[in-house]
Specification:
Layout: H1 2-16, E1 20-26, E2 29-36, E3 40-50, E4 59-61, E5 71-72, E6 77-82, E7 90-100, E8 107-113, E9 116-123, E10 126-132, H2 134-137, E11 143-149, H3 155-158, E12 170-184
Antiparallel strand pairs: 1-2, 2-3, 3-12, 4-6, 5-12, 6-11, 7-10, 7-12, 8-9, 8-11
Length: about 190
């Protein structure tokens, strides 16, 4: 509940400038900082990574080349490295998945952040949300998000007329990364 409250509060501050000291846009990253009365200084971030572009603005491994819809995870594991992360921030990654396993089954996966297990899930096409706690981000200014696909499928195994031997899991069109960090105010402290 606290996390949802701060996301809503941070996004409201970013979008309307209420209590916001600054909004900075750096390429695909928007950062807003401000003081939220009685609570502390809040930094919110939103960044967008387009997998339909030659350079999605992040480092990727285990994904196919660009196709009209984005990129397939093309091995039994894939990885995305995001730069310019606010250290010790709470993050949510929203993956826009356009297709899943060619077998017609939902893709099943484990998610790891900076090598630490986060969660497991299964999904058909749609949005996959992964919440990454601040302790998993740590003091790093980058984040490595890894997916271990439990049930990848080779299209050639389903239809021998399709000469595609990649291990496909899900097709990603884009990823949006939302984050916030907060320096809480000690009792009796006021804004400068």
């Amino acid at each position: 509940m606290k996390k949802t409250f701060f996301y809503a509060l941070g996004m409201a501050a970013m979008l309307c400038g209420c209590g916001s000291d600054s909004v900075v846009v750096d390429g695909n990253l928007m950062t807003s900082t401000g003081f939220v009365g009685g609570l502390g200084n809040v930094t919110t971030t939103t960044s967008y990574y387009d997998f339909k572009e030659e350079d999605p603005q992040c480092t990727i491994t285990g994904f196919s080349q660009i196709e009209d819809f984005g990129r397939w995870s093309s091995e039994d594991s894939c990885m995305v490295v995001f730069d310019k992360i606010v250290p010790n921030s709470e993050l949510t990654a929203k993956l826009n998945v356009t297709m899943t396993c060619p077998s017609g089954e939902p893709v099943k996966y484990n998610v790891y952040a900076n090598g630490a297990y986060i969660c497991s899930g299964e999904s058909f096409a749609g949005n996959i949300y992964v919440n990454i706690p601040a302790e998993k981000v740590g003091d790093n200014d980058n984040l490595t998000l890894s997916f271990k696909i439990k049930n990848p499928v080779r299209p050639i195994d389903i239809n021998p007329k399709i000469y595609d031997s990649r291990l496909l899991g899900f097709a990603v069109a884009d990823i949006t990364l939302y984050g916030y960090s907060m320096d809480e105010v000690e009792d009796g402290e006021d804004e400068d």
